[in-house]
Write a structure and sequence with these properties.
Blueprint (H helix, E strand, L loop, with lengths): L16 H22 L5 H11 L4 H12 L3 H29 L27 H16 L2 H20 L5 H17 L14 E2 L14 E5 L17 H12 L4 E4 L6 H10 L3 E6 L1 H14 L3 E5 L5 H5 L5 H10 L2 E11 L10 E3 L2 E5 H16 L1 H15 L3 E5 L2 E12 L20 E7 L6 H10 L8 E6 L2 E5 L4 E5 L2 E5 L2 E14 L4
Parallel strand pairs: 2-3, 2-4, 4-5
Antiparallel strand pairs: 1-6, 6-7, 6-16, 8-10, 8-14, 9-10, 9-13, 10-11, 11-12, 13-16, 14-15
Helix pairs in contact: 2-6, 3-4, 4-5, 4-7, 5-6, 5-7, 6-7, 9-10, 13-14, 14-15
GO molecular function, one term: kinase activity
Keywords: Cell membrane, Hydrolase, Kinase, Membrane, Transferase, Transmembrane, Transmembrane helix
Membrane topology: Multi-pass membrane protein
């Protein structure tokens, strides 16, 4: 009969009222272990030991994280990353600090059937359970980001792993409960440095607005930008871009819709305007820059916009809760419309509503960020998205110079300025999520300081997504913003596209101006 290599005898009884309480808890813990050890669960005698073994060294959880990452769905990728970070926090807390602090002996396994003990029993201290901590951490991290259909099986598996640690004789129930608690706290604690984003930003329901929808898509005119969402020059022409894949799905699911694939050299804005003029609903397949142009056409012709993700980031589509072309088609067939704000930057000399308005649905930026975007675009084809961003951030903050400007009447040296269409919930150089798309406010964030800025600290702030640790950082909410730059032309990034604009600008919003198809929430 297998026995724990550690002594099963408890230490001498502890003294004092609180010690007596701990002794009673210890006896209850051992009683619960004996009941589980004596239990017979037909069909699980083989499953639970193997499940427990698969969780050794986090293999089960990191394998699950890899599978979630391969789905290419942003929510699932965030869930996988948050769960993995939570394990990285919980594991050393339990295995290095907790076990050494308590040094609890492993249970006696006399009552555990040998069929459950198929591998060598662990020799480390028992309290808290490291397997349970990793399970709780990963499950909590995934639950913060993933939809219930994904989070529920992960939580159920984590619970089964924790129970298996008792069922196979490796831990007392108290060890497992403590491990689960520490893991859950680690998962929830990731929100302190990386706030969990809501799955869908709220929009105003378009009450009383009729829209004609059909199962076959009659009345829909879809404009597809095939240059969006590609894998770079290395894969162009070999693998279809995200936009091309989405176009194929539209043709199959909405056969009566008119699908226009933009050809090289065609004017995107002209094609969109012509499509909106004859559409009951304008669909657009592409990234945020393409969606930006489509929003202008939809506003000019007063037609609802169906956003079909097909770009690299698809920030606006994801804010609506549309993460795939299939979800966009479902949103269209449901016929639910919402109204969202549209922000703009316009020359100070022009009036509101003029054709000189530069619209943006997500963000507008000037200063070092425009240089960062230019460099990232050039490097992305060779390095990939995130390495290109890191290299571009380092090069930009090493060489960039501030923009001298008057901002709402105050003269400043602006290193980086960010204007968001709505209040954003993250703190990076380009925040990506909002709770509402119809709040009527601009989210203004700015680094404005002297001629010199701590470069290393600034680079770190951009890469980790916390601009507020940079000297000179300011943030406020406003209904409008006026900027007068002391330069011949100001470079402005709108929804990822960089263009030149006059140096005197006024930022504002058209509240609830754009009608969009929204998914059921």
């Amino acid at each position: 009969m297998l026995r724990s290599p550690r002594s099963p005898r408890p230490a001498a009884p502890l003294r004092g009222p609180h010690r007596r309480l701990l002794n009673r808890l210890g006896r209850a813990d051992r009683w619960a272990f004996d009941r589980v050890a004596a239990a017979r669960l037909p069909g699980l005698e083989y499953v639970l030991p193997r499940l427990s073994r698969s969780a050794d060294h986090g293999v089960l959880w990191f394998g699950t994280a890899a599978a979630l990452g391969l789905t290419r769905r942003p929510r699932l990728r965030r869930a996988a990353l948050r769960g993995s970070i939570a394990i990285a926090v919980a594991s050393p807390v339990v295995n290095i600090l907790g076990k050494q602090a308590f040094r609890r002996a492993r249970p006696v396994v006399d009552l555990v059937p040998p069929i459950r003990i198929r591998w060598k029993l662990p020799t480390s201290h028992a309290f808290p359970s490291g397997h349970s901590a990793s399970a709780g951490a990963f499950a909590a991290g995934v639950a913060l980001e993933a939809p219930a259909a994904v989070a529920a099986p992960v939580v159920a598996t984590a619970t089964a792993v924790a129970f298996a640690r008792v069922y196979t004789g490796a831990h007392y129930p108290g060890d497992v409960l403590a491990g689960l608690g520490i893991g859950a706290l680690a998962g929830l604690g990731t929100r302190l440095v990386w706030p969990a984003r809501p799955p869908v930003a709220r929009v105003t329901r378009a009450e009383g607005e009729d829209v004609q929808v059909t199962d076959d898509g009659r009345g829909v005119v879809a404009v597809v930008n095939p240059g969006s969402g590609g894998g770079g020059e290395a894969t162009r022409g070999i693998m279809p871009s995200g936009a091309e894949t989405a176009a194929g799905l539209l043709r199959r699911e909405l056969p009566a819709a008119e699908v226009i694939v933009l050809e090289e050299g065609q004017d995107l804005e002209k094609v969109l305007a012509e499509a909106a003029a004859r559409a009951d609903a304008l669909a657009v397949v592409g990234g945020d820059g393409t969606v930006n142009a489509a929003a202008r056409a939809a506003l000019d012709h007063d037609v609802p916009l169906l956003v079909v993700p097909g770009g690299t980031f698809d920030h606006f589509a994801r804010a609506l809760g549309i993460e795939s072309p299939a979800q966009a088609i479902t949103a269209y067939r449901a016929g639910r419309l919402g109204r969202v704000d549209v922000a703009y930057a316009v020359p100070a000399s022009a009036g509101t509503g003029s054709r000189d308005e530069r619209l943006f649905l997500n963000t507008a930026s000037f200063g070092a960020y425009t240089e960062l975007v230019d460099r990232r675009v050039r490097l992305e084809k060779r390095l990939g998205k995130w390495p290109a961003l890191a290299v571009a951030a380092v090069r930009t903050l090493r060489h960039s110079e501030p923009v001298e400007a008057v901002v709402d009447g105050h003269r400043r040296h602006v290193w980086l300025a960010f204007v968001g269409n709505g209040v954003f919930g993250s703190h990076g150089a380009a925040p990506t999520w909002r709770e509402r798309l119809d709040d009527g406010r601009l989210d203004v964030r700015m680094i404005a300081t002297g001629r010199r800025i701590p470069r290393i600290r600034a680079v770190a702030a951009v890469l980790v997504g916390h601009l507020h640790i940079t000297p000179g950082y300011r943030a406020w909410r406003a209904g409008g913003l006026e900027v007068l730059a002391y330069c011949g032309e100001l470079r402005l990034a709108r929804d990822g596209d960089v263009t030149g604009v006059p140096p005197s600008l006024r930022f504002g919003k058209h509240a609830k101006a754009l009608a969009v198809f929204r998914p059921e929430t």
